[in-house]
Amino acid sequence: MNILIKSATIIDSKSEFHNTTQDLLIENGKITKISSSIKNPKNYKEIKRDNLYISQGWFDSSVSFGEPGYEERETIQNGLKTAAYSGFTSVAVNANTNPVIDSNSDITFLNSKASKNAVNLLPIGALTAASKGNDLAELYDMSSAGAVAFYDYKKPIANPNMMKIALQYASNFDGLVCSFPQENKISGNGVMNENITSTRLGLKGNPALAEELQVARDLFLLEYTGGKLHIPTISTATSVALIREAKKKKLDITCSVAIHNLYFSDAVLTDFDTNFKVLPPLRTQTDIDALIEAVKDGTIDMVTTDHNPIDVEEKKIEFDHANYGAIGLESAFGALQSIFTTKKTIDILTKGKTRFGIEATPIAIGNMANIALFNPDTKYTFSKKDIVSRSKNAIFENESLKGKAYGIIANNQAVLNS
Predict the structure, then answer these.
(1) Coil, helix or strand for 325?
(2) Is 361 buried (19+), middle (13-18) or exposed (0-12) by CB count in 10 A?
(3) Total-model pTM
């Protein structure tokens, strides 16, 4: 692949060309020249876009596609195309499948399906067999096959001894254990945040306490075992405070928050729109403020789309019975830019790679191109025409967003919106 990118503003603090507008020559997938003006005597394909910006390729630490088993929700190929059009060059994919990804051969299957793609698929294996919480899955074997972490997607580990053993065992090969922050005995049948809004709507509440008890338990276990823990998608101010304190103790802990938990409060549920039924649930504005501050100060290590396609039959039903989940890849950049500056948004979208074993690739001469292309200033209303996913359960539908991705250049391929 040979490409000449024209007049691109580079946002990459690790590059000597940061905050400058340059032409980039890419030959056989490698950046061979960066200059204010590059001629094109070999007639390479030129990329020109309005208000073009580029950065290192973006990373999402929590994506679900469905395949195998739930191809009606999303396939691996279309999911990776969605990620590419949305600016992501690497996505960590959950074991949210049927059967659950919990063995060496399952990880090999995912890697095979995603091979030769512009987007790197990083498999997350189940922490327990079939994600049932009874026995540890084949963690070492999955790690050997390429699993980057272990997580029973949205299923908390009820048995604290199981979590203790998992942390101890995985530390033998530097494995990353993920634990969903919810105590089911407290959350019960709650379908939204327990608050005045849930009372007004007559919906069962899932209290912040359910998350915070689990976070506190897991941090105590981490301190005891000395393992390596990631807590995905926290949603409360107290969870932030607990993790901030754990980091002061130098525990090996990271955490993430879903973009929609930074943007929407539980007040949006007044119309019973099931696209807003997510887990953890949307919380209060006080929680949102604490989460945003934690992203800014680094207490929260990464922000995820928590992209989870759900087919229409499981969403267009009564709120109590609808499935949890929302797609978020396509709206991620525009939503983040509605909260943060462009510089901070790019920092957010490129953080977390090291935790999941990805080597960052600065925009520099001699490096392979791993680039996201975008326009940070486009203002638009997100609608169904912006959705590439098979499932259309977009939590940001009809929201006014700022900024759109043009696509990516990675793995010696260019995947760009027309």
Answers:
(1) coil
(2) buried
(3) 0.96
Between CA 182 and CA 204 the distance in angstroms is 16
Q: What homologous superfamily does CATH list for 57-356?
A: Metal-dependent hydrolases (3.20.20.140)
Q: What is the pLDDT of residue 41?
A: 86
For the stretch 384-410, pLDDT in tens is: 999 999 999 999 999 999 999 999 999
> What distance, in Å, lies between the first and last C-alpha atoms of the chain?
18
The answer to whether 178 and 150 are in contact (CB under 8 A) is: yes
Q: What is the CATH number of domain 2-53+364-416?
A: 2.30.40.10
- Whole-angstrom CA distances from 186 to 35, 168, 239, 257, 281 are 59, 27, 16, 21, 14
Please report, for the chain, the start and end positions of each structural domain, with discontinuous segments joined by +: 2-53+364-416, 57-356
* Burial profile 263-277: b = 16 or more Cβ within 10 angstroms, e = fewer: bbbbeebeeeebbbb
Q: Which amino acid is at 393?
A: N
The answer to whether 399 touches 335, Cβ cutoff 8 Å, is yes
Cβ contact 336:351 at 8 Å: no
pLDDT-derived band at 334 (thresholds 50, 70, 90) equals: very high
Cβ-proximal residues to 202 (8 Å cutoff; 6+ apart), any chain: none
pLDDT tens string 309-325: 999 999 999 999 999 99
Which tokens hold the place of 331? 């709206």
Instruction: List Cβ neighbours of 42 (8 Å cut-off, separation of 6 or more).
Output: 2
Categorize the per-residue pLDDT at 418 as very low, low, confident or very high, splitting at 50, 70 and 90. confident
Catalytic residue IDs: 306
Q: What's the DSSP call for residue 250?
A: T
Query: What is the pairing mode between strands 88-93 and 413-416?
Result: unpaired
d(CA 323, CA 365): 47
Distance of CA 178 to the CA centre of its chain: 14
Instruction: Give the integer Cα–Cα distance in Å for 228 and 215.
Output: 14
The whole-number pLDDT of residue 61 equals 98
